[in-house]
Amino acid sequence: MSLDDPSPLARAAPEGFWPIDPDPRVTSLAGRQHWRFRAGRPVAAEVAGLAILAEDPRIAHLGIRRDRQGRPFPAAFACSPETGAPLGPPVPAPAPEILDIDLESATEVPLPSGVPALVRAGHPAALYLFQENLGAFEGWDGHRFVGLGRLPPDPVGSGLTPGRRGIAYATTEALVSMSLPQLGPRLVRAEARAPGLRFLSAPCWRRGDLFVLGERGRRLILCRKDAESNALDLRDLGRPAPGADFAGPWTNRLGDCVWTGPDGFVACRTLGDETRVTPWPAGFEPVIAQAPWGDRADLRHQLGMRDGRYHLAALASDPALNRLDGPHLAAGPGTYSGAERFDVPWQTAEEVLNLGAHAGNLLVPLLALARDTILLALDIPGPRGGFLRGESLPAPVTGHVLHHAHGAGLRRLPLGLAVSRIGDARALLHDRVLYLWSRAEGRCHALRLRAA
Question: What are the start and end residues of every segment in region (Disordered) (predicted)?
Fold first, then answer.
């Protein structure tokens, strides 16, 4: 059967139980699926002795397509057996190229107490909630978050790293990878450690292997864990280890990853597993609270300070500095494309958006797509420099959310998010829903995307 061509099953009206073998392109859940149909419509599916009703959101873990009414069918079906109409793409649908937000669909999703972080992980991707300060890990069942277990609170570096195989994180002493339960009863944990090794960053997934930075004997070490083993391959990078943790990793379109540290950056490239450690230019102090941005050529730039002024350092073999005009995040003309991409001011801008302020507000990027950007406009009392460098505000400030549709200007979304420090507000797309949430107030808003 093909995912693209109409299958024999799609030209019949199935009744009773139909066996479907899982397709590894759309699901990592092993085991033959037994779908039960009635009058050409799916009623339930059974796998590994577990029966799942068609209305249960967990049925997406089997690898499905949906019809226009939202009913699930096996991914091997190209058309609805009942109507013959083409089915949608495998669920969850890929991120749209252009956001078309239904402004009337905003709903509030309650978050438990704690410091929330939403992540998409697994194959197919599912939505999970991690309470960073408590270590609670919960899964979204389509209606609420359900507890799945406890993780160590406040992992090293930037927290959890999601991937197709599951999630990974590092404590000071251990590198931990976990396959997600999907339809299983519990999290499956695997740990890797080495004598005298202390981890300094969050890990990076690459083709199932994990890479992470560590320190042993005051030397900077690149650690690699094979997908099939818990043994660590250690490579001395020929540099002394810094006295603080690394932020990141940040991954580009080629799969290369970069960690930002106080003394320089570490780039681990896909081609030949080349790893390069490059110190910052003299006098440059990186603003670790800010993720590096990538320009149109996918070259990363790190915000930092030198001589009391903001500069950007290119994350390249020769990290040249470019000074920014004014004391703001990126004052002057430029084009935002979100937290990880923007067109730098010294390049010719295709369209102009003043990054320093919008109607007197500081703009903070939340989500980047090819043609859309979600931003938060904040009116911060007092100096903004400390806020950009990661300092907390004395009280949360509520900002309004902007949708920047490139070529169509800005529009304000019907909700606000409160923040007390940079990074408090976040956004992600999952299954045709835009989730926007605030760490400061523990609230999440869901806006459904209109059908294209």
Answer: 1-21
DSSP 1-68: --SSSPPGGGGS---EEEEEPPPTTT----S-EEEEEETTEEEEEEETTEEEETT-GGGGGG-EEE-T
**Helices and strands, counts by H and E, the chain:** 1, 39
Q: What percent of the chain has pLDDT over 90?
A: 27
At residue 321, the pLDDT reads 83
Single-letter residue type at 26: V
Across 297-432, where does the E strand assignment appear? 300-306, 309-314, 321-323, 333-336, 342-343, 353-354, 362-368, 372-378, 397-405, 409-419, 425-430
Q: Whole-angstrom distance between the N-terminal and C-terminal Cα of the chain?
A: 27
Q: Pick the residue with more confidence: 372 or 424?
A: 424
Task: Count the Cβ atoms, other than its own, within 10 Å of residue 307.
Answer: 8
Residue in the block written with tokens 């949608």: 88
Q: Give the pLDDT of residue 348.
A: 58
Residue 446 tokens read as 């869901």
Write out the two tokens for 294. Answer: 């990538």
Structure tokens at 418: 């409160």
Q: pLDDT tens across 10-66, in order? A: 445 567 788 999 888 889 888 899 999 988 889 999 988 888 899 888 888 899 998
Tokens of 91: 């669920």
Alpha carbons 126 and 207: distance in angstroms, whole number: 19
pTM: 0.84
> What is the widest separation between alpha-carbon atoms in the chain?
74
